[in-house]
Amino acid sequence: MASIIFRRLKAFTLAEAVVASFIFLIALGIIANIVISLTNASFQLGEFHGGFENFRLGLEKLFREVKYGSDFNYDNITFSFTDRNCLPVSIKLVNKVLEMTKNSQQVTNIFDPKFIEINDWKVIIDPLTNPNSPFYFEAAPKFITFIFDVNFKSKVGKINMIIQQSIAPVNSVLPTSPCQQ
After folding, report:
1. pTM for the model
2. What three-state secondary structure class fits 12?
3. Rounded to the nearest 10 degrees, how much is the dihedral formed by the CA atoms of 17, 22, 27, 32?
4. What is the pLDDT confidence band of residue 38, given thresholds at 50, 70 and 90?
């Protein structure tokens, strides 16, 4: 009976317990760092998603106006045309914000300056096939290309992208300009 009491119990030594605790703490630290990094990446993605969505909505607004417009002109600063109601529209870059002026008075920002910063933009209007033609469909541009050098802004930084998009104006197939007097 006495041999059972004095039998040596199997257990971890203090050194083994310290090493196991140290390895556990290192693994816990690595896992916590991964979770924090994933949370930050998700936050940044959400911030930039707002900018991308704002840019998409601004492009839709711009293209809706251009699609039904006519009499296009671009002089390396201002893109101008007449809208579907035969009112003058001009678009130009002012302090990294793209502004649309309708009827020489109503000025609106195409993109929200909180999310979008336009560094530069270009408009390429296809060469006219027959500019002296009496028929509008022969003199009107068949496609217009917009090139944007844009920064998507958020609280954590900026992403710079160059985006190119083309549109074919609907009115370029008409025999006469829709706003011809």
Report:
1. 0.72
2. coil
3. 120
4. very high
Q: If you search the block for the tokens 């985006």, which residue do you land on? A: 163
Task: Characterize 58-70 residue by residue with b for buried, 16 or more Cβ atoms within 10 angstroms of its Cβ, and e for exposed.
Answer: bbeebbebbebbb
77: Cβ contacts below 8 Å, ≥ 6 apart: 92, 93
Q: How far is CA 68 from CA 42, 56, 59, 178, in A?
A: 39, 19, 14, 10
SS3 99: strand
Q: Residues, the chain, total?
A: 181
Q: What are 116's strand-pairing partners?
A: 152
- DSSP-assigned beta bridge partners for residue 151: 117, 160
pLDDT tens by residue, 68-102: 888 888 888 899 998 888 889 999 999 999 999 98
